[in-house]
Write a structure and sequence with these properties.
Helix content is 34%, strand content 30%. The protein contains seven helices and six strands, in the order ββαβββαβααααα. The protein has helices spanning 29-40, 115-128, 152-170, 180-186, 196-206, 214-218, 222-233; strands at residues 4-12, 21-26, 44-56, 59-76, 84-100, 137-143. It has a five-stranded mixed beta barrel with strand order 1-3-4-5-6. Helix 5 runs parallel beside helix 7 (222-233). The relative contact order is 0.17.
Length: 236
């Protein structure tokens, strides 16, 4: 039976994979509200890559496939509630079935990086009622995890493709392929028993843009995942 739930949604310029750690600095009023609500609940929200071609009530829209982030630690940086630092870890992947827009539309000339921007959005929120949500929510469907077994020969092929891509991108500088073994060691990617998490991490090392990682997150079988990673690592 398909499992669904309502999640707060945090569109970001990144892709979060299951079991990856993600620290975030929270300063916008709407996302401070999101974190407050999460801390009063199960500590979970959805991380989605930004959909640059769409918007919701004027706000940045999310891609339809994302990953649940679980807050493991929340710190008030200045002890004044103005900035929060949260540590999160990725859990299940999900698909958005239905967007629940925030009641508050994005004001014109809104700048989230200024005090004036924070004041304007907070004042509008008070007029609408502080019980209303300033952030996007969604009804989501949890996506089953892909089988964790990665054939070692296919993992070796991906590693060689990654090395070749890095060497080619480094030109005119000279990078010896064997020197990249130290990079793999640094990111704990030297293994004889690769799992899907190794594939996710290697993909992140081989991507220049988070949009290149979205198809990998969306892969729903091991064969499809390995194909998408090969496409990412192919030197064009």
């Amino acid at each position: 039976m398909t499992q669904t739930k309502i999640l707060p949604i945090f569109p970001l310029d990144l892709v979060l994979f299951p079991r990856q750690e993600l620290p975030l600095r929270i300063f916008e009023p709407r996302y401070k509200q999101l974190v407050d609500d999460c801390m009063l609940g199960d500590g979970q929200f959805g991380v989605c890559l930004i959909d640059a071609n769409n918007s919701i009530s004027g706000w940045t829209a999310p891609k339809s496939i994302g990953t649940i982030a679980k807050i493991t630690k929340c710190t008030d940086i200045e002890l004044d509630g103005m900035q929060l630092h949260i540590e999160t870890v990725g859990h299940n992947k999900f698909k958005i079935n239905k967007i629940i827009p925030p009641l508050l539309s994005q004001p014109s000339n809104y700048d989230p990086y200024t005090v004036e921007g924070h004041q304007s959005i907070s004042e509008l929120h008070e007029k609408l009622g502080t019980g209303e949500k300033m952030y996007i929510r969604a009804e989501v469907e949890l996506i089953p995890e892909i089988d964790d077994n990665v054939p070692f020969d296919k993992w070796e092929k991906l590693v060689e493709m990654w090395k070749n891509k890095i060497v080619r991108q480094a030109l005119p500088e000279i990078v010896e392929p064997h020197a990249l073994d130290h990079v793999l060691e640094k990111y704990y990617l030297t293994t004889e028993m690769p799992t899907i998490d190794y594939v996710y991490s290697l993909s992140a090392l081989g991507a220049k843009d988070p949009n290149e990682l979205q198809p990998i997150l969306e892969a729903n079988t091991m064969d499809n995942l390995l194909q998408k990673v090969q496409e990412l690592l192919t030197v064009k």
